[in-house]
Write a structure and sequence with these properties.
Blueprint lengths: L1 H18 L6 E6 L7 E4 H5 L3 H4 L5 E3 L8 E3 L5 E4 L5 H5 L6 E8 L4 E10 L12 E7 L7 E3 L13 E6 L5 E7 L5 E7 L10 E10 L6 E11 L7 E2 L3 E7 L7 E4 L2 E2 L10 E4 L9 E3 L5 E4 L10 E9 L5 E11 L7 E7 L3 E2 L7 E8 L9 E5 L5 E5 L4 E6 L10 E10 L6 E11 L7 E2 L3 E7 L7 E4 L2 E2 L9 E5 L3 E2 L2 E2 L4 E3 L5 E4 L10 E10 L6 E11 L7 E4 L9 E4 L8 E4 L1 E3 L10 E7 L5 E3 L5 E4 L10 E9 L7 E10 L21 H29 L64 H6 L2 H7 L17
Parallel strand pairs: 1-7, 8-14, 16-23, 25-31, 33-42, 44-51
Antiparallel strand pairs: 2-5, 3-6, 4-5, 6-7, 9-12, 10-13, 11-12, 13-14, 15-18, 17-21, 19-22, 20-21, 22-23, 24-26, 26-29, 27-30, 28-29, 30-31, 32-35, 34-40, 36-41, 37-38, 39-40, 41-42, 43-46, 45-49, 47-50, 48-49, 50-51
The structure holds 2-acetamido-2-deoxy-beta-D-glucopyranose (3 copies).
One 2-acetamido-2-deoxy-beta-D-glucopyranose binds next to strand 42.
Length: 804
């Protein structure tokens, strides 16, 4: 290949030689870059020089200024040969014609020939770019069709051998547009054919090739390096369209709820994402959103009961304000932070004690603001009350009674209701309901005792306090206010109210009149206690009044007849032996017990040794045999005393005639006391005179009465039983032989024309079984006062003895 090429070059050189033969001056045309030694032309021949003389004439090639000897002369052949490399580009650069001027110098004679060597260009240079690579920074926002000028490539060669064309490596975005400047210089432009996308491809590299027109063609390349600059053409993109988070309520501040993130494909400030809430409302002040990190944190107290979920729009913005949006959903989960609250919706207060078991007393409502199990509430009530809670419709409970109420036992209830929720840990609260029980008049007054006894000594003052009764009624106020009253009844045919009265308020029983033991010894009344309810309830009690005896009656001598009535004379046979019963003094005492226990004494006698009297029998007996010397007329004064304290007594006189024949009896009036016998004589005389005077007066009165009441039969003894001839009243309380009192004795009716105002007009048959004589006798009023001291402080009040 190289051979043929040289042959061609030679051919060209010869053509030049042929075209420009010159005398004096020669011109040659040679391609550049001929090998050293190559023959440019035969100068000797061309100049007609003598070949043999060349060396002698010291033919040589000179240059005017060049130091470099490009050519030389072969003195043997006369050939002009290449001595140094001839580079057209080095000699002439871009000049269109490049002539290398040489001179042939000959001496002897000096001869000078100009040699013009026209150096022809060969394509020995490739197009070349200034740099190895071209850098472009192009905004991705550049429009299609935008142009970017490229550096041109340089080629040392000229003409056709210079840069003729460019080609661009195939790529997605750019095309090449080749343009020509003045001087036929060609350069290229990059034309944006398809928009750039930094995010798609940030760096683009492709090769630009410049071609010259030589043959063979040469080329040069440059790498075009396009950096796509960012344009804020990307909005930030959230990683999720909806962020969901769940958070327990009451979470402390700064608790991290969730982190949102958005990415922006842009760079620098265009890719800097700032987070924020889309718009500010109350809701999102509860949370904070860190603009840089996207952390959502708790900013304020979160209450599930106020808001159970939050929905917010959040935005992500880049530096130039492109934004996108996402939804943030935060579900709040419930914490058991609310205790149940108990509301008393209604209450019947007070409740009457007679409500039937199961009656509804109140309605209770329980509320818990928490939800689910945290809001499930159980209600309970303390155990020891007769109430219970009955669940009603949702969260409502009825408070009902479980048993019979009794105000008198429990009048107030503090009912504690406890409500507990089912959270974990559970919360509870309690409420105390005060309930009072209203009274119903369900209790009758009850006397403290089953019966009462009152003891009073006779001859009491009217109005004196006997006793008091008390009844209790546990009911309230007027239902428990007790009023006492006597139940109507009769005592001995007279209304009880004429005997006793009871203080309605205090229950103190007073005597209305004076009681006389000898009239009656006891009686019973019924006292009623009634409350003030409506209707009232009542109960009654028996009060037995026992009248105790006072020694207020003197013994009453029945035989011999009281003095002044008549002188009765007993006959004593002269032959009577000692111990013979001569007569008997009969006396009674209206009192009872000791007060009626009589004793007989002879206080005066004609002959003190002759007669004796039984201390308790009143029997007069002879003490010794009667003798002739004894006075015929004997006179005894007998005193009868009771055993009361102080004792009362009565005296009587008895006349005894010691005689066997009544005819011997001297006149009664001759019977007189023996002057020497007793100092009593003078008293007796006074007594006899006064008795006689009294007797006469009595006779006159009797006659007067008789005259006035002629039709009325005069009864000396007008009782049920007349005194028998023996002068002993039947059932007379006598003293038996042993000298002890009989435990039971009776008074029967005696009527007498009595000489005393206190003579009995009436004695009811009284069987004293209820008052044993020994008991009455043993106890004095002061004894009773000791035992029953607090019954009544009044000395007049008889003791209250509970006979039950
Ligand atoms: C009920 O509670 C009140 C006040 O706390 C108290 O005064 C009262 O004695 C209580 N009643 C009962 C029956 O416990
Ligand atoms: C007394 O009882 C009656 C019913 O028997 C009742 O209506 C009344 O309220 C009660 N009085 C008082 C003061 O509690
Ligand atoms: C007194 O009470 C008794 C029972 O306590 C009763 O049998 C009687 O009838 C009552 N008498 C009067 C007069 O109320």
């Amino acid at each position: 290949m190289g051979c043929s090429r040289f042959a061609l070059l030679y051919g060209v050189a010869f053509i030049f030689l042929g075209l420009h033969p010159g005398y004096g001056d020669v011109s040659y045309s040679i391609p550049e870059e001929m090998k050293r030694g190559s023959v440019i032309g035969n100068i000797a021949k061309d100049l007609g020089l003598d070949l043999g003389r060349l060396s002698a004439r010291k033919a040589r090639i000179d240059t005017e200024d060049n130091v470099v000897k490009y050519c030389g002369v072969n003195l043997n052949t006369g050939d002009l040969i290449v001595q140094e490399r001839i580079d057209r580009e080095g000699l002439c650069a871009k000049k269109a014609s490049c002539v290398l001027k040489q001179e042939l110098v000959l001496e002897n004679p000096l001869e000078l020939h100009r040699i013009n060597i026209r150096v022809q260009d060969i394509n020995d240079n490739s197009p070349q770019f200034k740099e190895e690579s071209l850098h472009f920074e192009i905004r991705e926002s550049a429009d299609k069709g935008e142009r970017f000028q490229l550096d041109e490539a340089h080629d040392g060669d000229i003409g056709e051998n210079a840069v003729q064309s460019y080609t661009l490596q195939e790529n997605d975005h750019f095309k090449l547009n080749v343009k020509t400047k003045g001087g036929d210089r060609k350069y290229g432009e990059l034309v944006l054919d398809k928009e750039l996308d930094r995010e798609g491809k940030k760096e683009i590299m492709f090769v630009l090739t410049a071609f010259d027109g030589g043959s063979p063609q040469r080329s040069g390349t440059v790498v075009i390096h396009v950096t796509v600059l960012d344009a804020n053409d990307n909005v930030p993109v959230f990683s999720q369209a909806v962020y969901e988070a769940s958070l327990p309520e009451n979470s402390p501040q700064d608790t991290l709820v969730i982190r949102v993130s958005a990415t922006d494909a842009d760079e620098g400030i265009n890719g800097e994402v700032t987070y924020g809430f889309d718009h500010v409302s109350d809701e999102n002040q509860v949370f904070s959103l860190d603009p840089k990190t996207g952390e959502v944190k708790v900013a304020r107290y979160i209450d599930y009961e106020k808001e159970s979920s939050y929905e917010m729009q959040i935005s992500a913005k880049d530096g130039l304000g492109l934004a996108s949006y996402a939804t943030l959903l935060i579900e709040i989960t419930d914490i058991n932070d609310n205790a149940p609250v108990i509301y008393l919706k209604s209450l019947t207060n007070p409740i009457p004690e007679n409500v039937s078991p199961g009656a509804e007393v109140g309605i209770i409502n329980v509320q818990d603001r928490d939800s689910e199990t945290n809001g499930q509430v159980r209600c309970s009530i303390q155990q020891n009350v007769p109430f219970k809670l009955v669940p009603s419709i949702k969260n409502y409970y009825s408070l009902v009674t479980t048993g019979q109420l009794d105000r008198e036992l429990v009048s107030d209830y503090n009912i504690t209701i406890t409500a507990t929720d089912e959270g974990s840990p559970p919360l509870s609260s309690s409420k105390t309901v005060q309930l009072s029980v209203a009274d119903i008049n369900d209790n009758a007054p009850v006397f403290e005792e089953q019966s009462y006894s009152a003891y009073v000594t006779e001859n009491n003052k009217p109005g004196s306090t006997l006793c008091s009764v008390t009844a209790q009624d546990p009911d309230w106020r007027q239902n428990g206010t007790v009023i006492y009253s006597l139940l109507p009844g009769e005592v001995n045919g007279a209304p009880v109210s004429s005997y006793l009265s009871v203080n309605g308020d205090t229950g103190v029983i007073h005597a209305v009149r004076t009681f006389d033991y000898e009239q009656f010894r006891s009686f019973k009344v019924h006292v009623m206690a009634r409350d003030n309810g409506s209707p009232p309830l009542s109960s009654n009690v028996t009060v037995s009044v026992f009248i105790s005896d006072v020694n207020d009656n003197s013994p009453q001598i029945l035989y011999p007849a009281p003095e002044g009535n008549s002188f009765m004379t007993e006959l004593v046979p002269k032959a009577a032996h000692g111990g013979s019963l001569v007569s008997k003094v009969i006396a009674v005492d209206a009192d009872s017990g000791q007060n009626a226990w009589l004793s007989y004494h002879i206080v005066k006698s004609t002959d003190p040794g002759l007669f004796t009297i039984g201390l308790h029998s009143g029997e007069i007996r002879t003490q010794r045999d009667i003798s002739e010397s004894d006075s015929m007329k004997q006179n005894l004064v007998v005193s009868v005393k009771d055993n009361g304290q102080p004792s009362l007594s009565a005296t009587c006189s008895m006349y005894l005639l010691i005689s066997d024949n009544l005819a011997e009896v001297p006149e009664l009036k001759d019977i007189s006391y023996d002057e020497k016998n007793s100092k009593l004589t003078s008293y007796l005389i006074i007594a006899l005179v006064s008795v006689s005077t009294f007797f006469l007066t009595f006779i006159i009165i009797i006659l007067g009465v008789r005259f006035c009441n002629r039709r009325k039969p005069r009864l000396l003894f007008d009782g049920a039983v007349a005194i028998p001839s023996a002068y002993l009243p039947p059932n007379y309380a006598d003293v038996d032989g042993t000298g002890t009192l009989r435990s039971a004795y009776n008074y029967d009716a005696y009527l007498t024309t009595g000489s005393r105002t206190s003579d009995f007009k009436f004695v009811s048959s009284f069987n004293d079984n209820t008052l044993p004589a020994d008991q009455t006798l043993r106890k004095s009023p002061s004894d009773f006062a000791e035992v029953f001291g607090d019954c009544d402080s009044s000395p007049e009040v008889g003791p209250c003895i509970i006979s039950s």
